[in-house]
């Protein structure tokens, strides 16, 4: 049978990096096997579903370069692929289980369920439904219907024995009947299915052959096995992916750093870098190779190479990956990737968790041709130095905006007084005036010779020059910056620093 896998997120929040890994693993497995990759939207939780989350799902998949063969937008003959559009289908299958005596209507109110829960807690009893409505007589059932309470539909889970499921990675998973959530709800009182019912029906009708999902869903596997058996269907092959953890061994969350894909996009990660890195979270080709293109992963991915152990999300390693991928870009591609970030402010959060603008956009309006060309000429200077695409605007702002107030403390090297520095800067001005007439190697030698004559280290000369030119002691290469600005503008800035000193 041809491989058919699916990624089935719930649009109740923005796409998590763990979800992106699940999508990629499914996608790579389908491509490596010549199979089909489906996208299915599990939006049965209507109260928590929102449109921006749905759009974020599509944007994330597009950004990662994951093309689905069947699903929303592209269609397919197993649709609809949005669960809220399949409501009547789930209801008909739930009714089938009731008619066959494998499920039943439950009229218990939330008040009664709360009381049962408190009694269980007070008496240290196992949690779960007490099966009150499972064997109602005809008379009791009529009385329950007369109350007007909208019922849920519950599955008749076994009272004894055990349930066994096999997982490609974890092996056999066995659960005693007493440890399975008793008589789980299949259909909610509003007629919408629970995750358990919709998931099983859709996977069967969409002919899913393999289910690759996070290990947090392992407890659901025995329940799903029972539902498959109730319908008389064969269960797909399960493959529960290792958890993604933070450096402290806890499940990855916002306290560790960015977790939603949109946050990584906003910071300036490349999709190639993020795809490569998260594909290594729980999967490996061998013990040494780290870099893979998306096309290579589509060929090389195998379930047998997925690990059991949790994967640790190392932000520093991801940052290194991103820097490496940035260096590989051609000048034209680098500009194309950077350009959108030049018109976006850099945002962050204050101590209260409120979104604030950390740095204004380099271009607040449409840049003119001269400005754009200047930035293009400067990009090679920063390509080797940045880790994120959103760093470029801040690093090159000095080319378009002359510093007004200089950090005088940064300009003053250790061991020099202000008077000494002022004397040195006055003497170096002729070299700046003559800078454009010489190659950088000659200018550097002239400055080294000057520093030796003055009895100072070359860094003590270059540091104040860097502050004068860029307004910061951390900047792109100094000589390249002077060459872009020209001698006249550089001298003007040097005079401004001298005045402030």
Automatic annotation (TrEMBL):
Residue ranges annotated for the Glutamyl/glutaminyl-tRNA synthetase class Ib catalytic domain, each copy included: 3-320
One Pfam family named in its UniProt record: Anticodon_2
GO CC entries: cytosol
Motif ('KMSKS' region): 251-255
Domain Aminoacyl-tRNA synthetase class I anticodon-binding, chain residue ranges per copy: 334-498
Motif ('HIGH' region): 9-19
Residues annotated as signal peptide: none
Entry EC number(s): 6.1.1.17
NCBIfam families, A to Z: gltX_bact
Entry-linked PANTHER family: GLUTAMATE--TRNA LIGASE (PTHR43311), GLUTAMATE--TRNA LIGASE, MITOCHONDRIAL-RELATED (PTHR43311:SF2)
Family under the similarity heading: Belongs to the class-I aminoacyl-tRNA synthetase family. Glutamate--tRNA ligase type 1 subfamily.
Descriptive protein name: Glutamate--tRNA ligase
Gene (name only): gltX
């Amino acid at each position: 049978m041809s491989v058919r896998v699916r990624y089935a997120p719930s649009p109740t929040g923005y796409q998590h990096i763990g979800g992106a890994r699940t999508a990629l693993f499914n996608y790579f497995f389908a491509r490596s096997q010549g199979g089909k990759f489906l996208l299915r939207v599990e939006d049965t939780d209507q109260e928590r579903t929102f449109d921006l989350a749905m759009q974020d799902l599509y944007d994330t998949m597009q950004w990662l370069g994951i093309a689905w063969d069947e699903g929303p937008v592209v269609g397919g003959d197993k649709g609809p692929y949005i669960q809220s559009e399949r409501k009547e289908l789930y209801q008909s299958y739930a009714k089938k289980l009731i008619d066959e005596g494998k499920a039943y209507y439950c009229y218990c109110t939330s008040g009664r369920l709360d009381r049962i829960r408190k009694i269980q807690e007070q008496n240290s009893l196992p949690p779960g439904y007490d099966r009150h409505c499972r064997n109602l007589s005809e008379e009791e059932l009529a009385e329950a219907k007369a109350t007007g309470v909208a019922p849920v539909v519950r599955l008749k889970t076994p009272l004894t024995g055990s349930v066994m499921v096999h997982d490609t990675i974890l092996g056999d998973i066995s659960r005693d009947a007493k440890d399975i959530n008793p008589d789980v709800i299949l259909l909610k009182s509003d007629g919408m299915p629970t995750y358990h019912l919709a998931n099983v029906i859709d996977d069967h009708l969409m002919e899913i052959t393999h289910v690759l999902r996070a290990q947090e869903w392992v407890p659901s596997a025995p329940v799903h096995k029972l539902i498959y058996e109730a319908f008389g269907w064969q269960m797909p092959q399960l493959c529960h992916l290792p958890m993604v953890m933070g450096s402290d061994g806890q499940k990855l969350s916002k306290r560790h750093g960015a977790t939603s894909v949109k946050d990584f996009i906003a910071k300036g990660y490349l999709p190639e870098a993020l795809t490569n890195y998260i594909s290594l979270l729980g999967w490996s080709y061998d013990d040494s190779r780290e870099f893979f293109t998306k096309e290579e992963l589509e060929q090389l991915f195998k379930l047998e190479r997925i690990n059991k152990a949790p994967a640790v999300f190392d932000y520093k390693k991801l940052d290194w990956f991103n820097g490496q991928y940035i260096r590989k870009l051609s000048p034209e591609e680098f500009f194309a990737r950077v350009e959108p970030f030049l018109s976006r402010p850099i945002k962050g959060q204050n101590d209260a968790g409120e979104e604030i603008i950390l740095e204004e956009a380099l271009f607040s309006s449409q840049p003119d041709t001269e400005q754009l060309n200047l930035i293009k000429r400067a990009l090679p200077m920063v390509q080797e130095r940045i880790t994120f695409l959103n760093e470029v605007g801040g690093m090159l702002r000095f080319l378009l905006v002359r510093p007004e107030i200089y950090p005088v403390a940064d300009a003053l090297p250790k061991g020099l007084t202000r008077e000494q520095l002022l004397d040195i800067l006055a003497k170096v001005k002729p070299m700046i005036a003559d800078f454009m007439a010489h190659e950088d190697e000659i200018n550097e030698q002239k400055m080294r010779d000057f520093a030796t004559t003055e009895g100072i280290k070359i860094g003590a000369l270059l540091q104040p020059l860097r502050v004068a030119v860029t307004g910061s002691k951390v900047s792109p290469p100094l000589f390249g910056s002077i060459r872009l600005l020209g001698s006249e503008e550089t001298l003007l800035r040097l005079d401004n620093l001298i005045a402030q000193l």
